[in-house]
Write a structure and sequence with these properties.
Layout lengths: L1 H9 L27 H10 L6 H17 L5 H12 L6 E9 L6 E9 L2 E9 L2 H13 L4 E9 L8 E9 L2 E9 L2 H21 L2
Antiparallel strand pairs: 1-2, 2-3, 4-5, 5-6
Helix pairs in contact: 1-2, 3-4, 5-6
């Protein structure tokens, strides 16, 4: 638990009756889970080469806790992906909130999405030739900005059936090709996050001109 890990980090002998060095290890490695605290999380990130400011650390920690509630085991690659997504975070003009989807091997799939834009919460639904197509159509309708998908790639961040999905999309908005990244334990949710990320990047680019 968090209180035990915090105690070990402050003073090893609090709970360690045998040192890691005495059995041939360089040091003890804390395993992070849903009961881990902020101190253990920060210490782990530092060991991975990440030193975040307080605000970024707080947001990354909240995402970690949400992930730990869904995932049985958190790997280093999960943490790297989570923190990297926080570091390169695009300002959220459109904020993804929820996704409900239904797929079918015969016929059309459906998706319902809720986004926040300018303090207004909007929801809509659409049908598509596959769940991903339905998701992207809903986002287009909610944002009022039409994108054309040029490339779609999904990969597993770590191992296991509950591995985080990393989705990368290449979307064309008004002749401009934008890349978006999405990360989630659910592939369809990661796809929605990736598309919204590309949308936010496009809005940011056009707003600066």
């Amino acid at each position: 638990s968090g209180i035990h890990q915090d105690g070990v980090l402050k003073h090893k002998e609090t709970y360690e009756i045998i040192s890691a060095e005495s059995i041939g290890l360089d040091k003890n490695s804390l395993v992070l889970g849903k009961h881990s605290g902020r101190h253990a999380f920060k210490d782990k990130l530092i060991s991975l080469g990440f030193e975040l400011e307080d605000s970024a650390l707080n947001e990354a920690f909240e995402k970690f806790k949400a992930l730990a509630d869904k995932k049985k085991e958190i790997f280093d690659d999960d943490l790297r992906a989570l923190v990297t997504s926080e570091i390169i975070k695009i300002p959220e003009v459109f904020e993804f909130l929820t996704l409900t989807q239904s797929s079918c091997n015969k016929g059309l799939s459906s998706a319902a999405i809720t986004l926040r834009h300018a303090d207004e919460i909007k929801s809509d639904a659409a049908l598509g030739n596959g769940t991903v197509d339905a998701i992207f159509k809903v986002i287009d309708r909610l944002s009022g900005i039409h994108g054309v998908l040029k490339d779609y790639k999904v990969s597993a961040v770590s191992q296991g059936k509950d591995a985080l999905a990393n989705v990368v999309v290449k979307v064309e908005f008004d002749g401009k090709t934008i890349i978006g990244h999405g990360l989630d334990i659910d592939t369809m949710t990661a796809s929605a996050r990736a598309y919204v990320g590309a949308l936010n990047s496009y809005v940011k680019i056009t707003a600066t001109k």
